[in-house]
Amino acid sequence: MGKKKPELQLYNSMAREKQVFKPIVEGKVSMYVCGVTSYDFSHIGHARAYVAFDVLYRYLRYLDYEVVYVRNFTDVDDKIIRRANEVGEDPRALSGRFCQEYLNDMADLQCLIPTHQPRVTDHVDQIKDMIAKIISNGCAYAVDGDVFFSVDNFPNYGKLSGRKLEDNRAGERVAVDTRKRNPFDFALWKSAKPGEPQWDSPWGPGRPGWHIECSAMSAQYLTHKFDIHGGGEDLIFPHHENEIAQSCAACPESNVNYWIHNGFINANGEKMSKSLGNYYTIREVTELYHPLALRHFLLGTHYRSPVNFSIPQTEISSEAVFYIYQTLQDCVDALSALRGESETNSKPARYISGGQECITKLHGDFETRLADDLHTPVILNAALPEAFRFINVTLNMLKKKQQKQQQLSIAKTLIDLEKEIKQVLDVIGLLSNLTYAEVLQQLKDKALRRAGVTEDDVLRSIEERVLARKNKEFSKGDQIRSDLAAKGIALMDVGKETIWRPCVPVQQEKPNVPAQQEKQEKPNVPARQEKPVIPIEKENPSPTPAEDQSSDK
Predict the structure, then answer these.
(1) CA-wise closest residue to 245 among 135, 142, 149, 129
(2) 13, 165, 417, 487: least CB-packed within 10 angstroms?
(3) What is the pLDDT of residues 510-523, one digit of tens each?
C-alpha cells in the first residue's frame, strides 16, 4: 500500500494506560510470556492467553520488527509432583508428556512457535546464580535449606499491582511459615523432600521456587532489560510482582518497558475452577469444533476484556469460519477460468466500482484496529464481513452476462481483495496452511460428529426429502429439513440440487399440547449438560504471596 503503518499502542499494566510502543532497540522486539505448568491438558483459559500473544507476535512481525519471543515451561512444580504421585509416573516424564500435548494444542490453534521455549529443569544453574546474587545483595535469606525473598528489603514491592503489604491478610488461606521474617516473604529455593526431583545447591539439595524461574530465564534469553512481558491478569499479583522484585534485587538495572495482561474467561460471571468442574480443556473443545472456531471465538472479544465461554457462541464462531472459507472457495471457483487471463491481458484491467474503496478500507481498518491495542473484534465483526459481502455481490455479477473487459475487471478486483483478506487472516491467525476446500471439509466433519450422524446419513435424508417433495408430502420434507437443522446440518436447495452445510443448531418450536398430555408424552431424554467455563492462566486463588509457587500458570 506504500503508506506508513500506524503507531502501535499497547495497554501497559504498569502505567495503567495505553502507550505508544517504542522498542529498546529500533527494529527489534524482545518479548517474554509466562507459559504453562505442564501437569495436565491445557484449558481454554490458556488458549486465550496464548492466542492473544500470538496475535501480538504476528502483528509485530507484520510491522517488520525482528522479534525474539520467549515462552517458558514450568516442568518442576508442586502440582506436577502431586499429579505424578497420584498416577504413579515419574514427574519429569509426566511433565514432558504434557509439554508435548500443550505444543500439539498450540499447533492446532495456529499459534506460531516462539523463538525460545525454555524449561525450568534446563536452567537450574541460572536460577541458582540469580538466587545467590539476591542473597548477596541483602534481599534474601536461607533457612533450613529453603531460601526466601525478603519483601521488607525491597521498598518498591507492589508497584505493578498497586497493592500494599498492609492491605493483605497473611495466612488467610494457609498457615504462615513461622521461619519467614515477614509473612509475605516468598520461596526462591525449596529444600528437598523424599522422592521429589532435586538439585544440589549452596543451601542444600532442593528445587527452584516458582517465581524465580521466569526472572532467570527472561534474563538468560532477553537480558535484564527487555520490551514486553505478558501473561494472564491473574499473574499480576503475586507472580509478576515477585518477578519484578527478584529481577531488580539481582540486578538493579532490570526493567521491562511494557507489562501486558489478558483478561479472564468466565463461566456465568465466575472464574473457572476445577473444584466446580466448570472448565473445558482445549482438547475437549477441538474434538467437536474446528480449532479455528475456538480461535475465532477468542478473538471476538478484546483480549483485555472478560469473556464468557459457551457452546452457542462457539457454534456461531464455527459458522462464521465456515462462511469465511466458503466465500473464499466460491471466489476461487468463480475465478478459475479468469485468473490467468486477468494476469496476462495486454490491456490492464481496472477495479470495478467500489473495488478499490473496499480493499483500501479493509486494509486501513485492519491496521488501525490492530494498532489500537490489538482490537480484533472490530476486524472480525465489521471489517471482514463487509469485505465478504462485497465479494458475494461481485460474484453474483459474474453470473450475469458481462463483456470481456468487465469480466477481467471483476477478476482483478476479486483477486486483489482475496489477497488483502488472506493477509488480514494470516496476521490474526485464521488463515490455514490447508486449502479452502480442505478446511471446509474439516468443518463439515466436525459438524457431523456433533450431530452424531455420518455424511451417508445426511445424503439418505436428502434423498428421502427429495422423494417426499416429489410425492407432494411437503410436511414430511420440511420435517426432515427441520430435524437436521436441529442437529446443526442445514439443507440448501441450489437449482435442482440439494447440498448441506454446517449451521448453528436451530431449536424447534414445541407443539401446543395440553399440560397433562405433555407430562405423559415427555420423552425420557436427559438434557445436554453444558459445562460452564474456564479462567485464564491458572488456578491460584491466593490473595497473598504466602502461597508462593503453588499456581498453575
Answers:
(1) 149
(2) 165
(3) 555 444 444 333 33
Smallest Cα–Cα separation from 539: which of 547, 527, 530, 531?
A: 547
Identify the pLDDT of residue 401: 76
Cα 230 to Cα 240: distance, rounded to the nearest angstrom: 9
Full-model pTM: 0.90
Rounded CA-CA distance 385/377 in Å is 12
d(CA 511, CA 306): 38
Is 149 a residue whose pLDDT tops 80? yes
* Residue indicated by cell numbers 411437503: 474
φ/ψ bin of 258: left (φ > 0), alpha (ψ from -120 to 50), beta (otherwise) = beta
Please give the mean pLDDT across all residues of the chain.
89
On the CB side of 15, CA atoms within 13 Å amount to 13
Residue 58 cell numbers, joined:
504476528
Could you give the CA distance from residue 176 to residue 31 in angstroms, rounded to a whole number? 35
Cell 521455549 maps to which residue? 117
Point out which residues pair with 7 in neighbouring strands.
none
HSE-CB at 242 with a 13 A cutoff on CA atoms is 27
Which residue bears the cell 532497540?
Answer: 25
